[in-house]
Amino acid sequence: MSFSPNDNFWLNVTQGLIEKYDEEHKFGTYELVGGTFVPIARGGVYQTPTAAVALEAVSGSANDTVAGTGGRTLAIRGLDTNWLEITQIINMNGLTPVPIPISMTRVYDAWIVDSGSYASQTVPSHNGLITVRTAGAGPTWIQIYPTGFPRGKAQCGIFTIPLGKSAVIYFHYISVDSNKSADIIFFERENTNIVAAPYGAMHAGPEFVGVSGFVSLVESASPQGPFIGPCDIGFMGSFPTGSGSISIDYELILFDTV
């Protein structure tokens, strides 16, 4: 299938007017990337276990609690033990970790659902660094940053296509600190639910070497893919010399395969 992001088809998908098709807008940012390739996501991580893991969520501020002035409830979106999409909503409890009821194999989005404050340019919807991590203060899975101005939503440039779905991707832009030079790789790994050797291999897609400043990629009307779920896709980046910040933005159209 081939279609342009300017077609009416695209608009109809975003409005939910075409059955069996969905749209996913992804964007990610990572600061202080060094010489090692890491996921372009806040925290520089994207966990890919072979089995579902028990998780918890915690804030760096006591105000982010169900009766507080900060973030009160949090949504966590990803895949369950069967590699199917699930969204869970929990009440925050400030500095005290809150268990996420259903274990997950992937987490690719999180956002503040409601807040104790009416947000404005000076009043944020949450106060602390929101972290979803393995239960028992384990490894970080996804974060919502408070630096500068609290974001209210994760900035994760990685996605996992659920079982029963396929997707094509349109690249929008890459942005790198001015006067810095970054290397960026798009990758994909199908058959993520094969959890015993031989595993599905990870493959590089388009590679962007020596990127500096803002690069628009919207001129191409041809999508990449299709990628058949369950499948990890996304961007990793590095700075061969020094460090800096990288941001990416892309669009997915998902369609049912079963």
Structure description:
- This protein is an all-beta fold.
- The protein has two domains: 127 residues, Jelly Rolls (Sandwich), CATH 2.60.120; 92 residues, no CATH class.
- Helix content is 3%, strand content 49%.
- The strands form four sheets. Strands 1, 11, 14, 15 and 17 form a five-stranded antiparallel β-sheet that branches. Strands 2, 10, 12, 13 and 16 form a five-stranded antiparallel β-sheet that branches.
- The longest helix has 7 residues.
- It is globular.
- 38% of the residues are buried.
Task: Write a concise keyword list for the protein shown above.
five-stranded antiparallel sheet, 49% strand, globular, 17 strands, 2 domains, Jelly Rolls, 258 residues, mainly beta, disordered N terminus
What global shape is seen? globular
The CATH architecture of the largest domain can be named as Sandwich
Number of domains: 2
Helix content: under 10%
> Radius of gyration over alpha carbons?
18 Å
CA-to-CA gap between the ends? 17 Å
Which spans have pLDDT < 50 for at least 5 consecutive residues? Answer: 1-5
Order of SSEs: HEEEEEEEEEEEEEEEEE
Taken as a percent bin, the fraction of beta residues is over 45%
List how many beta strands DSSP finds: 17
Structural class: mainly beta
Q: Counting H and I runs of at least 4 residues, what is the number of helices?
A: 1
Mean pLDDT across residues: 91
Main pleated sheet: 5 strands, antiparallel
> CATH class of the largest domain, anyone?
Mainly Beta
CATH topology of the largest domain: Jelly Rolls
